Amino acid sequence: MKMLQTQVEQIVLSNMGFVVLLRGADDERTLPIFIGAAEAQAIALEVNNVKVPRPLTHDLLKNIMDCMECRLQRVDITKLEEGTFYADLVVHHDNVDFQIDTRPSDAIALALRFGCPIMVAPEVMEEAGQIIKTPSDNSAVDHSKPQATATDQRLHHIEILQQSLDSAVKEERYEDAARLRDKIEHLKDTHRHN
């Protein structure tokens, strides 16, 4: 089965929680997947290239895999059943590829850290993919589904980073907090000037 390659387009905050949007590389559709706040933070930190001095969970897993000479080849989002997405990590070790069942949110966070492809089964994209209009896109849009504006998306990004900042302060990780604060201020400045 030929899988569709996607990339993280953005993370948005809906009235039902965080959503990661995967945009098809050669496809106009976007796959929205609801994820938890911790996974949203892990993805947002990597997307925004925010470095933390101590490894978080997904950083730790990558470090362990590196030490064991395991290479994450790709992640596959394989199916959608009763509203739940399923995914596999495709890992290479000792000249053998094997699959490990995982949640898509964890798979995406790891894929970003390894710089590997995020693949989606065509039937999953067919069932749940949406055409989402961006500010520079005047193509057809499914108006029955809510659309996020660029401003909304930037503000949601700020909210995610603010939650990370609050956690860093609470855990007394002040270097992380300073970096997150600077990133938030940069995004706010960009928002004020647009």
How do the strands and helices of this protein lay out in sequence?
Elements: E1 4-14, E2 17-24, E3 30-35, H1 37-47, H2 57-67, E4 71-81, E5 84-93, E6 96-102, H3 104-114, E7 118-120, H4 122-128, H5 150-170, H6 174-192
Parallel strand pairs: 4-7
Antiparallel strand pairs: 1-2, 1-7, 2-3, 4-5, 5-6
Give the uncertain stretches in residue-range form.
Answer: 135-149
Name given to the CATH homologous superfamily: Bifunctional nuclease domain
Strand order of the largest sheet: 3-2-1-7-4-5-6
Query: How is the biggest beta sheet arranged?
Result: 7 strands, mixed
CATH topology: Bifunctional nuclease domain
Arithmetic mean pLDDT: 82
Question: What is the alpha-carbon Rg in Å?
Answer: 17 Å
Percent of residues in β-strands: 25-35%
Please report the total strand number as a whole number: 7
Number of domains: 1
CATH class: Alpha Beta
Please give the count of helices: 6
Beginning-to-end CA distance, first to last residue? 44 Å
> Which class of secondary structure composition applies to the elements?
alpha+beta
**Form type:** globular
CATH architecture: Roll
Helical content band: 40-55%
**Strand/helix succession:** EEEHHEEEHEHHH
In short:
It is built from six helices and seven strands. The chain is of the alpha+beta class and 194 residues long.
